[in-house]
Amino acid sequence: MKTATKILLIEDDPGSRDALMALLKGSGFAMTESSSGKEGLHLLTGERFDIVICDLFLPDMSGIEILTQVKLDSPRTEVILITGHASAETAVKAMKEGAYDYITKPLNFDELRIIIDKAVEKGQLLSENVYLKKQLLDKYEFSNIIGNSQAMQALFSRMKRIIKTDSTVLILGESGTGKELVAKAIHFNGNRKDRPFIAVNCSAIPENLLESELFGHVKGAFTGAIKEKVGKFEAAHLGTIFLDEIGTLPMHLQTKLLRVLQEQEIERVGSNRQIKLDVRVVSATNVNLEEEVKRGNFREDLYYRLNVIPLLLPPLRERIEDILPLTRHFLEKNCRAMQRPIMHLEKEALEALEAYPWNGNVRELENIMERVVALTEGDTITLRDLPGNIVKAYLERAGSPTSVTPQGIDMVQAINDIEKKMISEALQLSGGVKARAALMLSINRTTLVEKMRRLGMPL
Fold first, then answer.
1. CATH number of 2-135: 3.40.630.30, 3.30.420.10, 3.20.20.70, 3.40.50.2300?
2. 144-314 belongs to which CATH class?
3. Which region holds residue 406: left if phi is over 0, alpha if psi is between -120 and 50, else beta?
4. b/e 147-168 (16+ beta carbons within 10 angstroms → b)
5. pTM of the entire structure?
6. Measured between alpha carbons, how far is 388 from 408 in angstroms, rounded to an integer?
7. Nearest residue to 394 via CA among 412, 377, 418, 410
8. What does DSSP say about strands 280-285 and 309-312: parallel, antiparallel, or unpaired?
9. Residue 422 contacts by C-beta under 8 Å, 6 or more apart in sequence?
10. Beta strands at 197-201 and 240-244: parallel, antiparallel or unpaired
11. CATH for the 318-399 domain, from 1.10.8.60, 3.40.1550.10, 3.30.260.10, 1.10.1740.10
12. Residues 80-134 pLDDT 10s
């Protein structure tokens, strides 16, 4: 907002200074004035200004000297220089030193206002960019990849050892295990975090377009190439390119990718000019590339180039201890998004989640938690709130009759039977003390009583 914009005006001529102060104050800017360069620099040491408007020629020092000092002490403060003695040489020098703009006397106030408004807009965009970049870095901290299991801790340890290198990484794991999340964590915690991260799903782009998408093309390279196109590799220069589903890459592009990795240069489609690049390559696959090499579907030399540092993401069914923290995370995330109190899991519901094979891995768990939060009325998730396939897998493990016949099955009754059995066992072990039985079942005493009443059990 204009009222929040703080401007320091450094001008030795009293008439010009007073006129500008009055005009800028009248436009809603928070103004501070100074009649000399030294005084202006002193003010800058004690307060941060959004914009400095400074005369190029002052009695004690030049506006270029002030500009240089401002850019050293407060790089995000924009400097606008004004003078009655304009020349192309001084203008070029001012802009090279980092001045936002340069304006000559006699001042056109409307022109100055436009320059100030643009400088303010630039500052706001920079602030927003810094904020978004911080959010991005926070989002992909290692602590945000959830996993207490031994396998995940070993993965984190290996990731921490490689983030400061530029080594090529191959991430292996089933669909839904979080391979892109790991790739982003490697990038945004490494030396290239301020550079581009470009993700390409090799299986999602038609084969006839993939080469152009990866390496770009020149105008007229093929029918429809009406202008020059920069490819994903060029866009990732100095940063990281993430090649997901690398196992689906056609053989002729495998050859071209191998050359890129060996020579660190590309050729656009339709061009003979080599373009040198500095790109870190992180790839991922959910297929066994060694088997693909044996079958002749994947180049062996490319496989070894990609597999410099392998990272294996274990499937969710092999790290059962991570299901509870992941579930809590997704519940909190979706509850906040849907503006409802944080929900909790009953013991049976957690056991059912842990019994499920999770063929879709973490992505499947996240989707189910979103559905559960949207459809469950209360604040506690019970077994009956989970999808039927998860309940069925749990009841089968518990030994309850769950085979579905052509006549169907009474799933609600099956759930009631298992709840009744567990409550009876807990009451027996607790000597009939409901509070103790509820504690054993990880539910509240009032919830236990409500369940007993619903199930027709004696109170």
1. 3.40.50.2300
2. alpha beta
3. alpha
4. bebeebeebeeebeeebeeeee
5. 0.63
6. 13
7. 418
8. unpaired
9. 348, 441
10. parallel
11. 1.10.8.60
12. 988 776 565 666 677 777 888 888 878 888 888 888 888 888 877 776 665 555 5
Domain residue extents for the chain = 2-135, 144-314, 318-399, 406-459
Question: What was the pLDDT predicted at 76?
Answer: 82
Backbone phi and psi for residue 312, each to the nearest 5 degrees, phi listed first: -100, 120
How many Å is the Cα radius of gyration of the chain?
32
By the 10 Å C-beta count (0-12 exposed, 13-18 middle, 19+ buried), 27 is classed as: middle
By the 10 Å C-beta count (0-12 exposed, 13-18 middle, 19+ buried), 55 is classed as buried
Q: How many CB atoms lie within 10 A of CB 309?
A: 17
- What is the third-level CATH fold of 406-459? Arc Repressor Mutant, subunit A (1.10.10)
Q: What is the pLDDT of residues 8-32, one digit of tens each?
A: 999 988 888 998 899 988 888 889 9
Please indicate whether the domains covering 318-399 and 406-459 agree at the CATH topology level. Answer: no
Matching residue, tokens 């059912």: 352
Amino acid at 166: D
Quick one: which of 180, 173, 187, 81 has its CA closest to 133? 187
Is residue 268 within 8 Å of residue 275, measured between CB atoms? yes
**Rounded Cα–Cα distance for residues 144 and 320 (Å):** 18
Question: 3-state SS string over the chain?
Answer: CHHHCEEEEECCCHHHHHHHHHHHHHCCCEEEEECCHHHHHHHHHHCCCCEEEEECECCCCEHHHHHHHHHHHCCCCEEEEEECCCCHHHHHHHHHCCCCEEEECCCCHHHHHHHHHHHHHHHHHHHHHHHHHHHHHHHCCHHHCCCCCHHHHHHHHHHHHHCCCCCCEEEECCCCCCHHHHHHHHHHCCCCCCCCEEEEECCCCCHHHHHHHHHCECCCCCCCCCCCECCHHHHCCCCEEEEECHHHCCHHHHHHHHHHHHHCEEECECCCCEEECCCEEEEEECCCHHHHHHHCCCCHHHHHHHCCEEEECCCHHHCHHHHHHHHHHHHHHHHHHCCCCCCEECHHHHHHHHHCCCCCHHHHHHHHHHHHHHHCCCCEECHHHCCHHHHHHHHHHHCCCCCCECCECCHHHHHHHHHHHHHHHHHHHCCCCHHHHHHHCCCCHHHHHHHHHHHCCCC
